[in-house]
Write a structure and sequence with these properties.
Helix content: over 70%
Shape: globular
Largest sheet: 2 strands, antiparallel
Strand order of the largest sheet: 1-2
Length: 207
Amino acid sequence: MDMKKNWLKYAGMIIITAILTILVGINSFRIVAPTGVLIAPLAGLIPVAVTIAIGTVSGIITAVGACFILLLLGDADWLMLANFVLITAMVGWIIGWRLPLRQKVSHQQLIWLALGAAIAEAVLNLIFVGLVGWQTGGNWLAFIRLDLVATILTALMYAVLTAPLAMVFRWLARQILPDDNHPDKPQGSVEINLSEHSKKNKEKGGK
């Protein structure tokens, strides 16, 4: 019964973060290009923050679910979905797929993660914009120049907002979701370091 409640709480958090992602996606920067409108992938910072806070599986579910809704609303395309999934997976790989809720994460670590995500997002976005320009038969370099300001602004938002959002999400997760029953918790053996325990026993025996 407790496990079912934890899954419901987990699902609730994913739904809330997906709604936030949709709202940000609807209100993201837009650049008018010769072949259409380029939408800045600003909303991807929510799944990235979720990945740091709860885990990579949670982040990817948030990214894919929200992006499908944005696709239906006409506020995203398949390249943006690929952008969201790739940046989320990159950050997940950096953190080892999941940071346990009981593990303390320093502000400096979060800042470095945010900066890494911002740089990766800027590079990914420029690559995808160049692909759009190449696919449409236009000058891909002109597309990159056209989107450069929006890319820089998006990267800055990643750098500034990812860390505080991750802190808020981790705090919320600790309040409502016990770490032992976390859906993203990896299965398998657990390594326990007994060296400190043995050292204490020797000290007691010597006394």
